[in-house]
Specification:
152 residues, alpha+beta, Immunoglobulin-like, 2 domains, 5-stranded mixed β-sheet, 3-stranded antiparallel β-sheet, rod-shaped
Length: 152
């Protein structure tokens, strides 16, 4: 009987130790969850860069432009870099700069800028407008967009 009592006594101690460890683990898990809720991981930043048609849609880009006509597109930029960011947008055709503008955007700020395609004097198929985005003081292109169109 003495062995049986000692074994019961040892099991009670083991049960208490296990319960204490489980409570400590639970408290640590709650602290970790609270920390992650208060300080979420921002993830890697990026910039949205896109072209919209004259109605701010993606359905009616100018594909066939009559010679001498002017067509409007909208260039969108949204800062998701988690910091304020300076941007430069350069618009080129045949490696010739047609326009350039700078924007400074706060995090999550979006800006849509109208651009008018006026380089329609030469008739021809498969002409291309290159729209380049530069981020910060970096001289390398961060993102680029291409708009192909025909002048008829």
């Amino acid at each position: 009987m003495k062995k049986h009592r000692r074994w019961d006594l040892n099991m009670k101690v083991v049960d208490k130790v296990i319960k204490a460890l489980l409570i400590i683990i639970l408290i640590l898990a709650i602290i970790c969850v609270c920390y992650l809720v208060i300080n979420p991981n921002q993830g890697e930043g990026y910039t949205e860069f896109y072209i919209l048609d004259h109605n701010n849609n993606t359905t009616d880009y100018p594909v066939n432009i009559s010679q001498g006509n002017i067509e409007k597109i909208n260039i969108g930029l949204k800062n998701k870099e988690n910091v304020m960011m300076n941007y430069s947008v350069v618009i080129k055709k045949d490696n010739i700069t047609l326009a350039k503008y700078n924007k400074t955007l706060q995090n999550d700020q979006e800006e849509i800028t109208a651009y008018y395609i006026t380089s329609t004097s030469h008739i021809g198929d498969d002409q291309q407008l290159d729209i380049e985005l530069y981020k910060g003081n970096n001289s390398n292109i961060y993102r680029s967009l291409k708009l192909r169109y025909n002048v008829i």
